[in-house]
């Protein structure tokens, strides 16, 4: 039995996008609906937060430990602690139904950000974008409802991506030199009971870990979509896992709060899944 414990009782309305910076041993994450970015030590003791005017939705590391690439609801920014965010690229400014959602820095050094349709019409109008450090934004995938679950393998050659509302997880071949996607393959279509796919991460062995936001669990999938591990969590709405801590042996999991959620909802939980992760890619730094 894997022990899962509450690390930080942050009570986020919609905790998301955890990322571990091994250079300073700090965990970053956002509270989208709380309009805040959080930072804490691996033991949960040193916890700080910053409130934003716009909803922050995703984070990425840069070469400077005090500066992040961040997605807010309307676009991608550079943000240094204590300073105002600097706009890099507006995302879908002519489509009022969408906002930015899940995002990560890829092996190509670009910030990848997906959007979601917040309207009740359910149309597949969301997209996945690649934003370069010079602010150029390129649409990479169309026809989505809620872009989510971005993660790459350690060698940078495979990308996973999910659509939470359409309930599928895709695998792509990825070129870390150019960011080109190819060989799109649908690997699994999780049910509500199995765990609708939210945020995700890869371990050092190339397996994909998905937060089952509808089933209170973590699901670990092989590259072909076979379910390898299922870990129950003490929250009903886990949103995103990431590896971190010493030797990347720990997994941190953010969560959301619903009206009926248990008391630990919205906090950050930690566990040791028995496999290790690896360092996150950084904005403006390529692996090729």
List the helices and strands and how they pair.
Blueprint: E1 4-8, E2 15-21, E3 26-31, E4 36-41, E5 47-51, E6 56-61, E7 67-72, E8 75-80, E9 86-90, E10 98-105, E11 111-117, E12 126-131, E13 137-144, E14 147-152, E15 158-163, E16 168-174, E17 181-188, E18 197-202, E19 208-212, E20 217-221, E21 227-232, E22 238-244, E23 250-255, E24 268-271
Beta-strand content bin: over 45%
Count of DSSP H/I helices: 0
Return the CATH topology: Neuraminidase
Name the strands of the widest sheet in spatial order.
Answer: 1-24-23-22
Major sheet summary line: 4 strands, antiparallel
- CATH homologous superfamily - what is it? TolB, C-terminal domain
Order of helices and strands: EEEEEEEEEEEEEEEEEEEEEEEE
Briefly note the structural class of the backbone.
mainly beta
Return the CATH architecture: 6 Propeller
What this model shows, in words?
Helices cover 0% and strands 51% of the residues. With 288 residues, it is mostly beta strands. The protein has a four-stranded antiparallel beta sheet with strand order 1-24-23-22, with no helix packed on it. It contains no helices and 24 strands. The model has no long low-confidence stretch (mean pLDDT 97). The protein is globular, with a radius of gyration of 17 Å. The chain has one domain: 6 Propeller (Neuraminidase). It starts with a strand and ends in a 17-residue tail after the last strand.
At a glance:
The protein has 288 residues and is mainly beta. 0% of the residues lie in helices and 51% in strands.
Output the keywords.
single chain, 288 residues, mainly beta, Neuraminidase, 51% strand
